[in-house]
Amino acid sequence: MKKYIISLVVALTMIAAIPAYATPSETSGSTESGTTSDKAVLLIERLERIKDMDKSAMSPVEKRAIRKEVKSINKELKQLGGGVYMSVGAVIIILLLLIILL
């Protein structure tokens, strides 16, 4: 049992040492944050307008174009959003600490 616990601790330590790789967004260093947030607001407003459209009267070609536009807007929003990146090891350690302490 003791060997099992030691090997588990070693495995968790190795997992925690693996860095999380994140690709930086293209606009993170080239523009100021006000410009990117303004662009994000415009994209979100466009998504709201698309959501409010009456799609029943559209042809299949128009619907396909709208779907492609929504996908590209979502992809652009993900690039602008950035986010917090955590490694899997860090999440496991945090969960273990919570379990032990609670």
Structure report:
- With 102 residues, the protein is mainly α.
- 71% of the residues lie in helices and 0% in strands.
- The protein contains 4 helices and no strands.
- It has helices at residues 2-17, 33-52, 60-81, 88-101.
- Helix 1 packs across helix 4 (88-101) and helix 2 runs antiparallel to helix 3.
- It is elongated and about 70 Å long.
- It starts with a helix and ends with a helix.
Key features of this structure:
single chain, 102 residues, mainly alpha, 4 helices
Gross morphology is elongated
Can you count the helices?
A: 4
Please tally the β strands and state the result: 0
Q: By helix and strand content, what is the structural category? A: mainly alpha
Low-confidence stretches: 27-31
In short:
By secondary structure, the chain is mainly α. It has helices spanning 2-17, 33-52, 60-81, 88-101.
Strands, helices and their partners?
Layout: H1 2-17, H2 33-52, H3 60-81, H4 88-101
Helix pairs in contact: 1-4, 2-3
